[in-house]
Design brief:
This protein is mainly β. It has no helices and 6 strands. β3 and β4 form a beta hairpin.
Length: 71
């Protein structure tokens, strides 16, 4: 189904603008920022150069807007 959320996975060719959920369909949404073939260690939350996190409205999240927790 075209409208289904794709889950980020290894060995997939992504192009700029592709959207994936990670680690599963209920996870955070990410937008591809640079075309690449995914591989181990390049998961969306790990490589900010490749993926931009979105908030629940679908808008990009600024890095400084992430919630910080106190120890």
């Amino acid at each position: 189904h075209e409208d289904a959320v794709r889950v980020g996975a290894e060995g997939i060719d992504y192009v700029v603008g592709d959207e994936v959920a990670y680690p599963d369909t209920d996870g955070m949404l990410y937008t591809c920022q640079q075309a690449h073939t995914s591989q181990a260690g390049w998961e969306p939350p790990t490589v900010a150069a490749l993926w931009l996190a979105q908030d629940h409205s679908g808008d990009a999240m600024a890095e400084d807007s992430q919630i910080e927790t106190e120890a």
